[in-house]
Amino acid sequence: MSHSTITILRRRTFAAAAIAAFLLAATPLAAQSPAATPSGEPAAVKKLVEQKFPGAAVRNITKSPYFGLYEVQLEDQMIYTDSKVTYVLVGSVYDANTKKNLTEAKMRQLNRVAFDSLPLNLAFTRVKGNGERKLAIFSDADCPYCARLETELKNIDNVTIYTFLYPIDQLHPDAARKSRIIWCSADKVKAWNDFFDSGKLPDNQGDCDNPVVATSALGAKLKVSATPTLVFADGSVVPGALPAAQLEAEMTQAAAEAGKVAAAKK
Fold this sequence. Notes:
This protein is of the alpha+beta class.
């Protein structure tokens, strides 16, 4: 199981446990006054969620097409509730016909970032083929799943890759030092490739002006909690070392979505 998968599962388990704890600590539903229940408008539901689950940060809330429930995004967790917040469901909704995870798709839509807003000066750039497609990666030098992704990227062409050096100190305490040394190389792309191919680092002290601290702050702002994390042209944020075929599919879909957005702005 990958570091990214473990991190995601831990965060989801924690979120579910926190919600359960809130539920256990809440006033019994039978004791609540029906007259105090707000209407089913999203703003009112949001207020009631925050009242019943103190400390819960509601990032988004919308009426879902499922059973009249509301979708409530708490950090990276989606829950579902009725208009009176009488019941709460934690988990994913699937389309039984297509087997598509509808909750995951909605979370990807909500968590999109504006690709053009990324501070690409904090990343080093690789251009493969005509470079017409775009992909940003938050990567940790000592992450084995980042190494797996680099192997998959060898089978990808016609893309410009922006790599943000994003060491996760708790897992890889030496990754920040290695990141600084790679950045301080005269040829960052070669240094990165050589490191993943052979473990060889450039001959420098890593004491040049580097973006590692700023990149860590950027990742925290974007809620990047695992490596590798990929950002596609349409702003979709996907954690994990995707295989080449899935990378191709994601980039094709992202390019199409980005094109639609660009056309709508004209």
